[in-house]
Amino acid sequence: MKGYWAEAAGLRYVQLDPEEGPTELPVIFSVHGRGADATDLAGLSPEFGEGYRWILPQGPRPVPLGPGFVGWAWYDLGADQVETVVSSLEILAGFVDEALGRLGVPYNRALLMGFSQGAVMSLHAGLTSEKPFAGIAAMSGYLPAADTLAPILSARRDRSVLMVHGTVDQTLGIELGRSARDLLVEAGLSPEYAEFEMGHQITPESLAVVREYVQRVLAPGLPE
């Protein structure tokens, strides 16, 4: 894969393209967690084969990590959490729309995937979008702004969602993942859901489930 930095709708991002292949490829938006940057999930791309273009947006909120170091987040923790989820959701939605417009790729040939805060943003963005994505893959995520989704969830029964979560996750406990799943089920959606004996992490076993899902709902582009 060849990668480069760019900017769209006010967000910096990394784009990864196969060395060879057609210009028009399905797109995976891969969204990082708190304290990371746009490159954080780039290492996952080889696991999915050469048939995808990856776009990795960087969160808009700086997180000081010590002298000379800064990471990035999508929302604040604490009292401003829901408000900042919603404000970053608007930014991310505009970013996705601009990025897909530049590439000439329809929403149904794109997928949202994220870890931790990135999973939170992928779930909210995929469920609020009027245009359905091919899928939403949330790794160790939940729905902190669930109340903002309540009025529209019943109209989102066509959405394809995968959620994976660790049963010993000490950062975002398993009850958060289960509650998010139950909320979607109660609204009439049919999310795929898997638990693994792991912490707040991505393991080969959990990634294998995500990869199978992605390749099933978003077929890779074929070589020219």
Describe the structure.
- By secondary structure, the protein is α/β, with parallel strands linked by helices.
- It has a single domain (2-217), classed as Alpha/Beta hydrolase fold, catalytic domain (Rossmann fold).
- Helix content is 29%, strand content 25%.
- The chain contains 5 helices and 10 strands.
- It has helices spanning 81-103, 117-128, 146-149, 174-186, 204-217, and strands at 2-8, 11-17, 27-31, 53-57, 61-66, 69-73, 110-115, 135-139, 161-166, 192-196.
- The strands form 2 sheets. It has an 8-stranded mixed sheet, sandwiched between helices. Strands 5-6 form a two-stranded antiparallel ribbon.
- Helix 4 links the parallel strand 9 and strand 10.
- The longest helix has 23 residues, at 81-103.
- The radius of gyration is 16 Å and the shape is globular.
- The chain starts with a strand and ends in a 7-residue tail after the last helix.
- The model has no long low-confidence stretch (mean pLDDT 95).
Which secondary structure elements does this structure contain, and how are they paired or packed?
Elements: E1 2-8, E2 11-17, E3 27-31, E4 53-57, E5 61-66, E6 69-73, H1 81-103, E7 110-115, H2 117-128, E8 135-139, H3 146-149, E9 161-166, H4 174-186, E10 192-196, H5 204-217
Parallel strand pairs: 3-4, 3-7, 7-8, 8-9, 9-10
Antiparallel strand pairs: 1-2, 2-4, 5-6
